[in-house]
Amino acid sequence: MSVNLAKGQSVSLQKSTGESLTVVRMGLGWKAAARRGLFGRRTKEVDLDASALLYAEKTPSDVVFFQHLVSNDGSVRHTGDNVVGGVGAGGDDESILVDLARVPVHITQIVFTVSSYTGQTFQEVENAHCRLVDETNGKELARYELAGGGAHTGQIMAKVVREGSGWQMTAIGAPAKARTFQDMLPDIAPFL
Fold first, then answer.
1. First vs last Cα of the chain: how many Å apart?
2. How far apart are CA 65 and CA 42, in angstroms?
3. 88: pLDDT strictly greater than 60
4. Which of these, 152, 146, 147, lies nearest to 175 by C-alpha position?
5. Contact by Cβ (8 Å): 191, 159
6. How far apart are CA 127 and CA 68, in angstroms?
7. Which helix (H) or strand (E) holds 186?
8. In whole angstroms, what is the distance from residue 16 CA to residue 120 CA?
9. Nearest-angstrom CA–CA distance, 121 and 46
């Protein structure tokens, strides 16, 4: 059963049997919102980008995004850039796979961000979500909806934090003015 996360809410990434998850997928889905124009409703393509920033405590260590698809250690992998979105209700347009068992021990947290590379605001996006899936069985564990749009171009979605021998996910949902993950670094700092 999936948990719909509210801003700031956390969920443990333990299986119901008590075992730790091994491979999770952070999926991002979106669709360009239709806008009323002179000749009816139309949409403009929106290029959102998912990124995963790996931190050793509060120090950036690595990043996975559309120009660096695999972390240096190979534990985190982006499945590829989607420049238009709109795969459909509930589906993922971009995904980042995290092999939790392979994440180096010095990495204590992974922050997932979304940025509008083409510069449109989240007011021009609908049906946007971020979700965590147990990749071993395809079950959705948690979902965070990007409700209400907003006049921002970036979003700090969630983070996965090492807790003892397991991991915990926290929904952040903080807006940012950003076209790339680099633009969001100052906004991420308070959430580390």
1. 28
2. 29
3. no
4. 152
5. yes
6. 27
7. helix 181-188
8. 40
9. 9
Question: pLDDT at position 83, please?
Answer: 57
Kindly report, residue by residue over 70-87, the tens digit of the pLDDT: 999 999 999 976 655 565
Helix/strand/coil for 67: coil
- What span, in angstroms and rounded, lies between the C-alpha atoms of 77 and 144? 21
**Token duo for residue 119:** 């510069």
- The torsion angles phi and psi of 174, rounded to 5 degrees, stand at -95, 130
Tokens 């700090």, residue located: 156
Contact assessment for residue 63 and residue 52, using Cβ atoms and an 8 Å cutoff: yes
Pairing relation of β-strands 3-4 and 139-145? parallel
pTM: 0.83
Q: By the 8 A CB rule, do 64 and 71 touch?
A: yes
- Which tokens hold the place of 160? 């996965």
- Residue 162's nearest CA partner among 9, 79, 61, 54 is 54
Q: What does the block give as tokens for 51?
A: 């990124």
* pLDDT score at 33: 66
